[in-house]
Every structure is written in C-alpha cells, then in structure tokens.
Amino acid sequence: MAFITNAWYVACWAAQVKPGEMFHRTLLDQQVVFYRKQNGEAVALQDRCPHRFIPLHLGNLRGDRIECGYHGLQFDCSGKCVKNPHGDGKIPAAAKVRSYPVHEKHGMLWIWMGEGVGDPAQIPDYSVLEPESGYRTSTGGYIHINANYELMAENLLDLSHITYLHDGLLGSPEQVGADQEVKEEGSHIICNRWMPNVSVPGIFDMLYKRDGRHVDMWTNMRWIPPSSFILDSGVHAPGGQREDKGWYFGVHILTPETERTTHYHFAAALPSGTAMTTEEAARYAELRRFAFEEQDKPMLDAQQAALGEANFWDMKPVLLTVDAGPVRMRRALERMLAAERQGTATTG
Amino acid sequence: MAFITNAWYVACWAAQVKPGEMFHRTLLDQQVVFYRKQNGEAVALQDRCPHRFIPLHLGNLRGDRIECGYHGLQFDCSGKCVKNPHGDGKIPAAAKVRSYPVHEKHGMLWIWMGEGVGDPAQIPDYSVLEPESGYRTSTGGYIHINANYELMAENLLDLSHITYLHDGLLGSPEQVGADQEVKEEGSHIICNRWMPNVSVPGIFDMLYKRDGRHVDMWTNMRWIPPSSFILDSGVHAPGGQREDKGWYFGVHILTPETERTTHYHFAAALPSGTAMTTEEAARYAELRRFAFEEQDKPMLDAQQAALGEANFWDMKPVLLTVDAGPVRMRRALERMLAAERQGTATTG
Amino acid sequence: MAFITNAWYVACWAAQVKPGEMFHRTLLDQQVVFYRKQNGEAVALQDRCPHRFIPLHLGNLRGDRIECGYHGLQFDCSGKCVKNPHGDGKIPAAAKVRSYPVHEKHGMLWIWMGEGVGDPAQIPDYSVLEPESGYRTSTGGYIHINANYELMAENLLDLSHITYLHDGLLGSPEQVGADQEVKEEGSHIICNRWMPNVSVPGIFDMLYKRDGRHVDMWTNMRWIPPSSFILDSGVHAPGGQREDKGWYFGVHILTPETERTTHYHFAAALPSGTAMTTEEAARYAELRRFAFEEQDKPMLDAQQAALGEANFWDMKPVLLTVDAGPVRMRRALERMLAAERQGTATTG
C-alpha cells in the first residue's frame, strides 16, 4: 500500500512542539522532526542527517537551526545544510534534508508531505474548536492505534458499532434501529444516524442531561478525505424536526504512521450552554478516553492482527447495509491514490 | 510445512472451557474460540467474524450464540450468522464462520480440523485416566513449547535422553545401557526400553518406593499418530519377566499451535496401590513440572532456535541407534501428509 | 553482506572463559562455545550438536570434553565426537563440530574463523596492555552495539565527532579545527588529529591534570584491518613538536556478532606517571563507560535503525573531509572481502 501524500495531515497538537525543544514522529512511514523558530513558527524537517543518517532529533537546536549530534552539521529551516564545521567548511550540494510545509490551524499542526507546498486553504474547517465559536472545547486527545488508518476510518464513519462496543457509554441497544442515511457533498461522505424516541447513553447524557427522559437523537458523521472527520450530534424532545444541527461536535482526525499503525487525534466542541463542574468535565474526559482507548483501540488492534499483511478485499469481507459509507470511502481513497500515482490530482 | 489435519487433536483440557465463558487458542495456525452451550456441550468456532475480522472471543455469549463485539452479528453453534441487527436485518449468505467438530473424552476436549466431521472412535484411548480404571490420576498438565511438535515428539518417543537431561529425576547413568526395541502395531510405533537391575530415579521412586533397592525397570512409549503418546513404565524385583505392564501410565499429547510452537498436554495414571500423602503428591507434581518445564522445554526451545526456519533434514542430522523410532515416526508423518494432500487417507 | 573471515577477531576477554565453565557467544553469525582444558588452554567449538542441533553450552564439561545435555554425545577439543553412550556406541563419521583456532594474547581471546588455522603472529600488537610496558592499564571494557561493525569503525577512525557527541568529556568546540591527516602504513590506515593550544576535555584531564592550562593535544587513531584500533593521544605544553607519542593508548576492537550487531571491546594504557587515587580511577572508568555506552552506543544504534537493511552506499551518504579515513577503510574492507571470495588473500 502507498499513502495519499497530496493532502494535509495532522502531525500533532501544536502545543506538543514547544519552544526550544524538538518533537519527532513517524508520519506516512517518514521520520520527521519538528521545532519552532525563535519567532515561534513551526518547522518540520526530515529527521535524518544526510551525512551518516543520524536522527536529527538526537542533536541540538542552535537558534533557528538544527545541529546534528554526531558531527555537528547545521541545517536551516529550509533543510539546507548551512554549516560544516570541519576542515575547509565546504558544504556539499547534496547536504540537505527535506523540509515539509506545515501550518497551524485550530490548535493542530498540519503537515503537507506531497508534491509542491500545499494550499493551507484546503485544511479542513474545525472552527468549532476556536474560541469565537462559542463552544467550550475539550482538545488534545491522542491515541496510538496499531491498525491501518482505513480500519479506524471505518470505525468512525459507521457508528452502528456504538451499540455493541460502547454500550452504556456512547451507545445503547435502542440505537441499533437508527435510520441511516449516506450522502455525498463534493468529496465528503456523510453518514447520518437518526434515532427517534430513545434514551441518552452515559457519556452523551453528561452533556445533554436528560436524566432518563426520551429524546430524538442524531449522530451525523462527515468524512473529509483523506482521513478527517467531524461528528454533529445532539438531542431534542421527541417529535421534533429531524435536523437540528450544531449541538455537539466531535473532531476525529487520523494520520497514518505506517501501513499498520495510526495516529488518532480527537477533540470535542461542547455546547456553551452545557454546564459541567470541573469534576464532571474530568469524568467526561476520562469516560471518553476509556471508550476510545480501552474499547475502540483493542478492537482495532485485534482487527489489524487478524488481517496481518493481507489485503482487506482479498479477505472477502461480508458486507452489511451499515458498510455503505465505509465502502464508498474506500473506493474514494482508491481513486485518489490512483489519481495521485498518475499525477493528475490533489486532495481538496 | 503443512499440518496433518485429518486427525483428532487435543484442543485443551475440557475443564478449561467453563460455562458462560469463552476460551480461545491458536491450533494448527487457526484461531479458534470455544464455549459451552447451555446444555453443557462444547462448541468450537473460527475465532474471526466474517464482517470485519474481529476475534469473536472479544464479543459476548448470548445463550447458545456468540455475538461479535464490534457490530453485534450473532453466530449459532454451526457457525451460521443468525442475526444481523442492522437495517433490514438481511443476513448475507457468506456470513458464517467455520465450526469444528469437538468431542470430550478422558477429560480432554478433542477437535477435528480436517475434512468431514471426524469419527470420535478414532480418538486415542486414554481410559487409564477414567475413574473406573482404578488408577489415581494426575491430570491437567500443560506446557507451551517454542518448537515444532515433531521435535517434541522425538523427545517423547526416544527416552534415551532421560539419562542426560533428567539425571536423578527421571533417569540415571545406569539407564543408558537400556535394551531398546522398536516395534510397530498398525499405525502405532512403540519404543520399549528395558533396564534390568538398576536403581530407581527420584521421581519414579516417589511412586515405586524401592528405597534404593535394585529393580528391573521398563519405559515403553507408544506413539499414536499424529502426536499422541502413552508411556507404560514400572519396576519389579530383579530377574522377573520382561513384560509386566500396567504399573504406571504417562499421557503426553501434542497439538501444533504454529509451525514452530506446540501445545503440550500431559497427565499420569498412578497405580492405586501407590499411597502418597498430600505433601508427597504435591512434591511429585512439582518435580514432574520441573523436569518438563525447566529441563525439556528450554532444550526444545533452543533446538528450534538453532533450526530457525531450516528444514530438519536439510540440516543433515547425525543419526544414532536411538533415532530408529523418531525416524520411523517422521517418515510415517511424511506419508500421512502426502496422503492427505492427495486426498486419499485419514488418520486412524 | 558477508564477513571477512580470514582474520583474527577478539572473541572475548580471556578472563571470561573460566576454568570448569562454558562461555558462549555469536561471532560472525556463528554460535561458538568456549571452555578451558584442564591444562588451562582455551577451546572454541561450534555451539551446536550435530545430532539434534542442541547448543552444546546447555550440556556439561567432562574433563577436556564437552557433553551434549540432551543425549550425552561427547566431543573432544578438536570437535570430534568421541563418545556415543547409546546402543553399540558406534560413532557416525559425520558426528563432529567445527573447532576454531584460538589464541590468548594481551588478555584477550582471539579466534580464527576463516580457512586454515591462522597465524597468531598476525594478531595485532597491543603490548601496551602488558605489565612490562610500564603502563597502568584499564581493561575488560565491553559494550554490545546494535549496529554493523563498519558504522562503529567509522566512529573510531573519525574522531571529529568528539566535539559534538562527547562535548566536555572527550572533546570540546576548540577541537573542531583540528589539523587532520590521513596516512597509510601497509594495510593500516592512520587518522591523526593535531590540536594546538587547546584546553583539555574532562576525561582526558583526569589523566593529564592540566587544570585548565592550554596544551597542544593529539589524537592519532590507527586502524588495523579488519576491525582493530589503537589510539595514541597526549598533550604537552603549547608550542612543542607535533609528534610526542606514547602518552596514552586507547585500545578499541570490534567483532561482528551479526550483520547489524557488534561486540565492542575496549581498554586503555595510561602513563605510569599518571597518579590517580582509587576514587579517581573509578570515576575515570565510569565517565569513559558513560561516553561509550550512553553517548556513542545510542547514536550507533539509531544510525543502524535508520539504515535498516539498506546498503550504506545505496543511501548516498554526503561525504565530508573528515570521511577521508572512513572511506578508505570501507574501500579496503571491500577489497579484502572480494579477495577472500576469490580465495586469493588473507588478512595481515
């Protein structure tokens, strides 16, 4: 498998790249080191000195430059070697590392690992995480998944699993009869679930506080290719209109680490009207972490282990109606990858 | 290497599959989940949901059914999907998992992983473990071996190693001069060792209580293809007849887990006349565990590590007279495997 | 990659092979077991019984023989099986293991793993470690490196890295301007670094005790193929002659364990005039260990991890002037390997 590279991916939460420190991570099978220039701007460089292949994060920051810890070559933010301290100091033309365009948006550091420099306008809109949105936010979530990002993307796009995997926390048996709708908006795929006259599962009830009263509930998930998601969920008194957007937003973003591991970043925008005490907020965050890390992650890890190195389709998966969204997503990703190989397209 | 599949293998001790719980294990490179129906009958299913390849043991038992923990598909004891809780609830024809015939006998759960349903009459006879045999028994032994089952089978069939590997516990220098005899009875191979006028090694003396007096001793091992063994061992006053069967029986049964790992189940039938205090019985069990787990297992694990992925015969092993039994066994296994590939035979 | 085999390698420190005990190690991808005959002479045998491939070090010493722990075959110092305790006791002609010539010199056990018996006169001269040299010595150093020996050899031959990797301990920024000279003497390659009017870094100052006064300093490293090194380093008052050998000798010897792991043995000969208290000597040894094990080793391990299974030259390393020595060394090793493959040369 190759990765779609002409796309913006979340490298990490912006706060993880601290002034005066290096941060390093494997993204799309490439080692990358991050640091901040003295003016605060983030930099992303290939994390491998071209001289003797030492990870640059084992070296030191020297102002806006990074210095290899083995022989002291210095590289500037463009990845160009600008100092060879030895002998006559000449710098070979090949002495450079790849520099990746990065862009901070919505508290995340986005990276472009494809051709050209990428257009930051193509970064998905998560403005619900911004202060001016009026939402209270819970950000900084991160889990390392030992599974290919497409398997995790299926988990997110098809929320029918919450009845079984997250029973009592995020879902319940009442939700299994949800009216499901799959739509496309441009390159986006949207999977809406509408559940009239149900009770509210535990974690959601910490936000919605219906104390057991029945509601109409919706969980509408939008896939923004290649691997960003936003969930619009909420409730209202039974019998209301089907659409009542803008209550709660779940932010879920996947970045391939390797073919079989994934960085999973998540956050949420809670209605500002939702009052929670500090204790309730901590309890909410802990339950959410439990659901993602101790329910989703073991399932995903086991799924990848069962697949091993096999191709997903070669395993001849049985398809259900709930797979309509995931299958469209897989086909879209295949088309994007094919287009990228032919050099005919970038991801919007 | 492939495995001989048309044979009954021990999956586990029957007591390991408890009511209301799932038990899972890899057998012959296949993941299998076990549970009991409400009437107590054991069930063995392929441990992988055909929808998204999740191990079924991560799900839940629902009466006689198993429910996948990810999306709630339910499978009955035959492996057929009998409930799809989503959408119109239609069940795709391909939604099934393999069901393996199992049979409880002599306290063990036997599994048939080959063609057809298997004939339980072909399960080896270990009735010495049954109460009506009149023997006291010590059952439930299990060790995981990091070696191919044929290497462990050679260990069992050729007991000449007990002088060296188990000196003082199961063997002694006196036993190296044993009169060895290799016989065949139908598909069985029998390796008899007759040791006249020897003292009794430690573990055996806990059973035989000769307090240092010399005896005639025999250790007669029978191989029942593909990987079951029964040892008939005992002693009598020197000068008696060579054959005096029925004193002590050692039960040793191997099940391939993968090409390079093996499940080793063992038990023993002790003469009912052999009185042991509770302390003595515990000491006996501990010494036996020590001999198998801290003497045999490290040797086997190291042997497999030395072989790596090489074929045994390609390594050109030097052959000794004591290898007569093991070599016949290897050749018999090769013939069985070849026959199975040609579809012309099952294991008796 | 293959290894150069027609060469003497350090198997271990001689004291590691203790009377009555076995010592085993992988060298050049081969498992070797060492022991001492009753007259004290060291023996090296292939660590694998030809019968069932059991590592012989799991067995027992019987006088000058080694006995396999599984079935009791005995091998003499030449590797010939001299006892088969079973049946008629006949010994198959193929029952033998490889015996490797070994030679003790300078406190180390050297092994010849190539063709013929090797000429001990070709073992590199480290007589500075002998008592009659007049040097105090610090021997017995050992670190396991998770990198190919050539990567570690580059580290040793090109000491320009000490300014960066060992700043304050073995090097300093002042040393980066060293006058570097690369010479060849027969098959040896010598990389000399001359640093006039510099201060003395921490570890060296424990020996040289200049208390911050400036000195002229030299670090002259000699490579003796395929993987032995000796460093001649020292200081004198500024303005003296460039050459003033014989102050301090660092002994660094590499033995490939596998293609990607290396045994690194090291020692030092300190000027007898260098008085150190016991505490100072312990502190010196600890700082040296820290520099090698916690500075060099992580860098080397990370370098190998970055290379993975790639060929060094295929990675197109950028070359600097400080690489003149390492590149010549790599080319010499390539010629030696090619010559060995054609059967036309041994290592001198």
TrEMBL record, chains A, B, C:
Domain of life: Bacteria
Pfam families, per the entry: Rieske (PF00355), VanA_C (PF19112)
Enzyme class: oxidoreductase
N-terminal signal peptide: none
Protein keywords: 2Fe-2S, Iron, Iron-sulfur, Metal-binding, Monooxygenase, Oxidoreductase
Its EC number(s): 1.14.13.82
Rieske domain residues: 9-111
Official protein name in the record: Vanillate O-demethylase monooxygenase subunit
Upper classification of the organism: Bacteria, Pseudomonadati, Pseudomonadota, Betaproteobacteria, Burkholderiales
